[in-house]
Specification:
By secondary structure, the protein is mostly helical. It has a domain of about 200 residues. The protein is about 80% helix and about 0% strand. The chain is built from eleven helices and no strands. The two termini are about 20 Å apart. This is Flippase-like domain-containing protein.
């Protein structure tokens, strides 16, 4: 029993890693590889912007936990795996993986649960805050592009977004364990992450389809984040695709670009997981 208790972080890490491999295999074999068969962007700057888009979230997390725990550069690998797990397994499975990683390294932090919890909650609150701000700007402009029957889902989702954030703000003293100064810094980093992610996505799309102004892509990037965070909205991906086609036209080229972007994210997930696995095997110390 003592051995199990001492090894449970490694067990959780192994379980989440296997789940990541299974999730990636399912996503790639079901639809991801088909997306890579679509028109491939020819501008090499697209791939630079896309790489920046991919690495903004884990780098922001690294900035946060470097600030809190002074984690080494190797912690960035665990944070990339955290992002992959959240994308292909289920929500917050990445947090479970990273918590297990931190618990296995007691020399870095003795009690990581409070910090991981606070960072995760603040990420959700920052996402909700940025979404509400985007709605305030975008809804008056793009309301005519949203089908009337969908507007009730939008308004209902707004209520859910606001309602899920409110309790954490009201009971912040009981919910959060980090000092207030750190909480504000983490919230600011999360907001910057979201803004940079939206910018690099718009830039990548603009480089792939230069015939469309980057301002339009910025609006669409904000719309993509908006649709992804509205909890009551059905068929989010399809609705966003229709919204984008109504704004830009060129339905085939746009559909292919969106499909390629999604497939490329999955491909990078898979390549990194394989690379991390090979590195672990080559550097593992014999028992």
């Amino acid at each position: 029993m003592k051995t199990i208790k001492s090894r449970w972080p490694a067990i959780i890490g192994a379980v989440v890693t296997l789940a990541m491999l299974a999730g990636l295999a399912h996503e790639l074999l079901s639809s991801g590889l088909a997306g890579l068969d679509r028109a491939t962007p020819r501008n090499p700057l697209f791939y630079i912007a896309f790489a920046a888009l991919y690495f903004v979230p884990p780098l922001a997390d690294y900035w946060i936990f470097r600030r809190l725990w002074h984690i080494p550069l190797g912690g960035l690998v665990a944070l990339i795996k955290k992002r992959i797990a959240n994308d292909v397994v289920m929500g917050y499975s990445g947090e479970a993986y990273f918590y297990a990683w931190a618990r296995a390294r007691a020399q870095l932090v003795a009690a990581p649960f409070g910090a991981v919890k606070d960072v995760s909650i603040l990420s959700a609150i920052a996402g909700n805050a940025v979404t509400l701000a985007m709605i305030a700007v975008a809804l008056p402009v793009g309301r005519e592009l949203i089908p009337p029957e969908m507007m009730r889902y939008v308004y209902g989702s707004l209520a859910v977004i606001f309602g899920t954030s409110l309790p954490f703000l009201i009971f912040s003293r009981k919910v959060f364990s980090l000092p207030r100064r750190e909480l504000w810094a983490i919230f600011g980093i999360h907001c910057l992450r979201l803004i940079l992610g939206g910018f690099f996505l718009a830039l990548a799309w603009a480089l792939a389809m230069p015939s469309v102004a980057i301002g339009t892509w910025l609006f669409l990037s904000a719309g993509r984040m908006l649709f992804s965070r509205l909890p009551l909205l059905p068929n989010k991906d399809l609705l966003f695709a229709n919204f984008a086609i109504l704004m830009i036209g060129e339905d085939q080229a746009l559909s292919e670009l969106i499909a390629f972007t999604a497939a490329a994210v999955l491909l990078i997930h898979a390549l990194l997981i394989v690379a991390f696995g090979i590195h672990h095997l080559l550097t593992r110390k014999p028992s």
